[in-house]
Amino acid sequence: MPGGLDSIRLGDKGTLRMTFTVETQGGHGAFLHRGEGAIRVATRLIDRLVDLEAMRGEGMETDMQKYLQRSDVRDVTDDNMSAGAADSMLKPTVNIGTITAGAKVNMRPSSCVFEVDIRLPIGLKTETVLAKINHLISGIPEASYSVQRAATNPAAASSIHHELVALLQKNAKAVTGSIPLPICSLGGTDCKHFRYQGIPAYTYGPSPKTMGERDEKVGVQEYLHTVKVHTLVAWDYLGGS
Question: What is the model's pLDDT at position 213?
Fold first, then answer.
């Protein structure tokens, strides 16, 4: 899993995926006095959903929050995932991934359906966000939503102070010459399934800077460094000498 050789991913943000539907009376586009159409209603709702990004610190343990706000941790996070990533570790983000509406430019659409991907910082519960969404949607009677349960997962994190962190740092320094810092992943990894069962899990890997983009690749040297560090950590953790 990509992570960056100067970071150890101690946790993943959670995922809340939802489908919103807006139903209104359709009609000719010149007769807006009869109704504004589903897309205009949906845009107001989207603006309200984006305001969820102002939520910060709800449910996150104080020690974790202070750690993720450290300047060195923020610098590593922004360097690994580009400027702004350090802020995203601490707040929910709202992505409008798909939107379907309208049949013709001069008609008021009667229906608008859009999907939302909300990423939850460590500690922020799905129920807390849904309660806020219920409040903001209460003034828009044309709108309803459903939660994509199969694609919705809570945030999860392991301790900053676990033995595996120290072993990763020790062996990374031996291989690369630098000590990686624990940070939080913005996307999800399979580590969450271990963390849900109370099993500490961490990610250490090559740079994510081309992840999910054209010409996605990993440098040969970074790959070899990753293999060496993983091997040495496993050896140490299992009692090697």
Answer: 76
4 has pLDDT over 90: no
Residue 2 located in a structural domain: no
Q: What pLDDT, on the 0 to 100 scale, is given for residue 90?
A: 95
User: DSSP assignment of 96-117, as one string?
Assistant: EEEEEE-S-TTEE-SEEEEEEE
209 plus 169 within the same structural domain: yes
**Alpha-helical segments (H) within the chain:** 38-50, 62-68, 71-81, 85-88, 126-137, 163-176, 191-196, 220-237
217: helix, strand or coil: coil
* Domain containing residue 111: 13-151
CATH of the domain at 54: 3.30.70.360
Return the structure tokens found at 123: 């500690």
Q: Give the list of residues 6+ apart from residue 67 with CB closer than 8 angstroms, or none.
A: 73, 160, 182
Q: Which two tokens stand for residue 170?
A: 């020790």
148-186 residue pLDDT tens: 999 999 999 999 999 999 999 999 999 999 999 999 999
Residue 1 lies in a domain: no
Whole-structure pTM over 0.85, yes or no?
Answer: yes
